[in-house]
Design a protein that fits this description.
The protein has 142 residues and is mainly β. It has one helix spanning 55-64; strands at 4-10, 15-18, 25-34, 46-54, 70-83, 89-102, 119-120. Helix content is 7%, strand content 42%. The model is unreliable at 111-117 and 123-135 (pLDDT under 50).
């Protein structure tokens, strides 16, 4: 099974490109993901993980993700290689995003100001005909 779940901060705004053959959008960005444990006497270490998001998910990420935001990504690890013009082989390992979430806590004054879902890729939008409603969080037990 190849399944990755990451939560971290964007190190830069997503970069958008289009494929040459099918003109498909691909957004690429990097996440700084803190390691769980800190060695005594040292600062917390972070890993910088490259992420790519294709198509509609890439469009979502490029439109709503900004440098410094905390986000969560689920996807799969992929490795690829290519030869450059000098004949040198390059290796890349990256996460191909399948779902994208906002992970920052909501700031004061943001309630109701956004017109988009807080997640993309997790569940299809029911067009507003949902059987349940999530409240503002004031009456949630956790």
């Amino acid at each position: 099974m190849n399944k990755v779940i990451l939560m971290g901060r964007l190190t830069r705004d997503p970069e958008v490109r289009y494929t040459q053959t099918s003109n498909t959008l691909v957004a690429s960005f990097s996440l700084a993901v803190n390691r769980r444990f800190v060695r005594q006497g040292e600062e917390r270490q972070a890993d910088f993980i490259n992420v790519v998001a294709w198509g509609k998910l890439g469009e979502f990420c490029s439109k709503y993700y900004k440098k410094g935001q905390q986000v969560a990504i689920t996807g799969r690890i992929q490795t690829r290689t290519w030869d450059d013009e000098q004949g040198q082989k390059h290796y890349v390992t990256e996460v191909v995003a399948e779902e994208a979430y906002f992970a920052d806590s909501k700031r004061e004054g943001d309630a109701g100001s956004s017109s988009f879902d807080a997640t993309f890729g997790a569940m299809p939008n029911a067009g507003g005909n949902s059987d349940f409603e999530i409240s503002s969080g004031d009456d949630l037990p956790f």
